[in-house]
Specification:
Helix content: 25-40%
Strand content: 15-25%
Largest sheet: 9 strands, mixed
CATH class of the largest domain: Alpha Beta
CATH topology of the largest domain: Aminopeptidase
Number of strands: 20
Distance between the termini: 40 Å
CATH architecture of the largest domain: 3-Layer(aba) Sandwich
Number of helices: 9
């Protein structure tokens, strides 16, 4: 498949995936799609008790590699229903208070909006103030708590952003909610489809993980069960190429310049994170250079983590790293990625899987 064909496939996958709703703990829609999308390309697909979707390609003797992309998205959860039918909510994952007022949302399958104080009533100070989510509410068009109940909405119902994929004519850049990590799910699905007729020298696990946004929980459970020799998380990270970000002060990565190999993420203080294993990073870089795939290196200290942070601590330790793409406007309903970066990430991972039998995972290979 050439670059243009792969980009077309990824674009369609993202149209489908960003239209689905699956906040942490409520990933059923996305899990169902992922399972169906890869079923014909692998030897087996199972769903564990926590909800992780595990696709397996068995290729005989060789190492075991786990590739993980998380199914969940940031969002909210209903915590109370007021007598007049308005919903109060808590946040799930990294939802940002500043992005919430006036947003269209979906609650248990029903459309709604996050209410906001009318612009005509806002004083100068109020216009500059970020309203905390505790003071916000969701309006689903109901007039009473009883009507809300008849809609099937209750305490514990999930709330996600609403919106279809925005595409720019003649461009490979697309915008949508939940691009973190639906781009990764699309890349993993595309990769498994392309590997369907190719030999795998070892065992490959393609895992759609759950509850990444609330503590990397699904990845930890899946890694313990599968006990792979090594792992790569597929996730996005914030780009540093907009007028309000800086290459030197934030992160030196830009859209359109290729996938990102993350050297370290959230590894300061008590924040759960990880330093990528040097052997995995070395092999990813070698693969990119051998295949002439442009790539970028980045650290993400204090700016979020990936499933690799949980996977690398399982059992006796699992050498792990992260492959991502630059993502603008992270944690908002309008996250942007460049499909050219995603296409190159798929090519990098395909070549990396193809060289499984050649990877040396020793921390000190010169001691052998």
């Amino acid at each position: 498949m050439d670059e243009h064909g792969r980009i077309d496939c990824l674009r369609q996958l993202l149209r489908d995936l960003t239209a689905l709703h699956g906040v942490s703990g409520f990933e059923q829609e996305v899990a169902r799609y992922f399972r169906k999308a890869v079923a014909g390309s692998v030897d087996e697909v199972t769903v564990d008790r926590l909800g992780n979707v595990i696709a397996v390609r068995r290729g005989g003797p060789g190492p075991t590699l786990m590739l993980a992309a998380h199914l969940d998205e940031i969002g909210m959860i209903v915590k109370a229903v007021e007598p007049a039918g308005f919903l109060r909510f808590d946040k799930l994952g990294g939802a940002i208070d500043a992005f919430l007022p006036g947003q269209r949302v979906r609650v248990a399958g029903h459309p709604g909006v996050v209410g906001c104080r009318p612009g005509h009533f806002l004083g100068p100070e109020e216009q500059r103030r970020v309203v905390p989510h505790d003071d916000l509410y969701v309006d689903v068009g109901a007039t009473s708590a009883e009507e809300v109940a008849r809609m099937g909405i209750r305490v514990g119902s999930s709330i996600t952003y609403e919106g279809s994929l925005l595409e720019f004519p003649g461009s490979t850049r697309v915008v949508g909610k939940a691009m973190d990590d639906r781009w990764g799910c699309a890349a993993l699905i595309q990769l498994l489809r392309e590997l369907a007729d190719r030999p795998v020298r070892g065992t490959l696990y393609g895992v759609g993980t759950v509850m990444e946004e609330v503590g990397l929980r699904g990845a930890q459970v899946a890694a313990f069960r599968l006990s792979p020799d090594y792992a790569v998380a597929i996730d996005g990270l914030s780009a540093g190429d907009t007028p309000d970000t800086s290459f030197s002060h934030d992160v030196p990565i830009a859209m359109g310049r290729g996938p990102v190999i993350v050297v370290a993420a959230s590894s300061a203080g008590n924040v759960r994170g990880g330093i990528a294993h040097p052997a995995v990073v070395r092999d990813l870089i070698a693969t990119a250079e051998r295949e002439r795939i442009p790539y970028q290196l980045a650290t993400h200290i204090l700016r979020g983590s990936t499933d690799a942070a949980a996977i690398h601590l399982v059992r006796e330790g699992i050498p792990s790293a992260t492959v991502g793409v630059p993502r603008r406007y992270s944690y908002s309903p309008v996250e942007m990625v460049d499909l050219l970066d995603v296409e190159r990430a798929v090519r990098l991972l395909r070549a990396f899987v193809g060289a499984m039998s050649e990877h040396d995972l020793r921390f000190l290979p010169e001691d052998a």
